[in-house]
Design brief:
The structure is a homodimer. The first copy, chain A, is mainly alpha-helical. Chain A has 2 domains: about 60 residues, Multidrug-efflux Transporter Regulator, Chain: A, Domain 2 (Orthogonal Bundle), CATH 1.10.1660; about 60 residues. Helices cover about 60% and strands about 10% of the residues of chain A. Chain A has 6 helices and 3 strands. A 3-stranded antiparallel β-sheet of chain A has the order 1-3-2. In chain A, a hairpin with a 2-residue loop joins strand 2 and strand 3. Chain A is elongated, with a radius of gyration of 22 Å. Chain A binds a DNA duplex through helix 2.
DNA sequence: ATGCAAACTCAAGTCGACTTGAGGTCAAGC
DNA sequence: GCTTGACCTCAAGTCGACTTGAGTTTGCAT
């Protein structure tokens, strides 16, 4: 198991040293020791950081990701949570797909102003109706 | 053209009155006048708000959306910007699709710990893209 | 042995998009 | 005419995820 200093971890994981300290403080990663006052990391931290990055991309907050590690430090994600997040992602994907089509249409549309294009207005209106739905749903939950 | 008071606009657009004042201050919407000191809105503000919501969902910031309106107030989006954003969205969609599949696999995977599953590890390693950030499924950004 | 880039700690700042609070005004119903 | 509640303004607070700054310490190359 090779020892890594913070700069090397930072460089290989694509984050700054400050971010690593921040993550450690939050309990997301751990250093295996110190050399003087300097942190020493094991290379498994890289996999862990990759996982954190993936989790963030999937829409989990750092707090949620933190909860995915059991006290021992091994990964232990609730499978139903994963399935739930996959479904959520799926809905997001579909919405973004419609949006992309709308943008593409608007980009090619010959109407002098976008609001004069019936297709564009339809897309805008469709977004509007969905926003009503969301307002009924739970208000507070961020990434 | 019916006159709307702030409460009605808020209710119909699914935002709070405070948000409407905030948007007005930022130049994203305008009231057509005042009745006493109270704002009066024309109903076209609803379409504009729907557009703003759509834009947010597509990953635009309020500042970017603001720039899409010409000084006169009409919508005037740079078409190449739209096409560019559509392409960006497309890349995001593909990446999120892979992520969703990964999550789905992990949810069904029989390995005792996810890190012991080769498929999961492959997904984790594959996650390196940075441009994903913009369209992450932040419920705040959702339509 | 010495110089210094790189670490360290802890506090505070930043950014976006709002929300909340304090204190004041006013149109409408009783 | 009076109360009340919806509005108003302006300032400050919040939230997440970092970043930045200030002041201090030290491992390592020369």
């Amino acid at each position: 198991m090779s020892d890594l200093d913070i700069a090397e971890v930072a460089q290989r994981a694509g984050v700054t040293a400050a971010t690593l300290r921040f993550y450690e403080e939050k309990g997301l990663i751990r250093s295996i020791g110190r050399r003087g006052l300097r942190r020493v990391f094991g290379d498994s931290v890289l996999e862990r950081l990759a996982f954190i990055s993936l989790g963030r991309a999937a829409g989990f907050s750092l707090a949620e990701i933190g909860r995915m590690f059991s006290p021992g430090g091994t990964l232990d994600i609730d499978r139903s949570l994963l399935a739930e997040r996959a479904d959520e992602l799926d809905r997001t994907i579909r919405r973004l797909g419609a949006l992309r089509d709308g943008l593409r249409h608007a980009a090619a549309c010959p109407a002098p102003s976008h609001m004069e294009c019936p297709t564009f207005r339809r897309i805008v209106r469709a977004a509007e109706s969905k926003s009503l739905e969301r307002h009924i749903a739970s208000p507070r939950n961020k990434i």
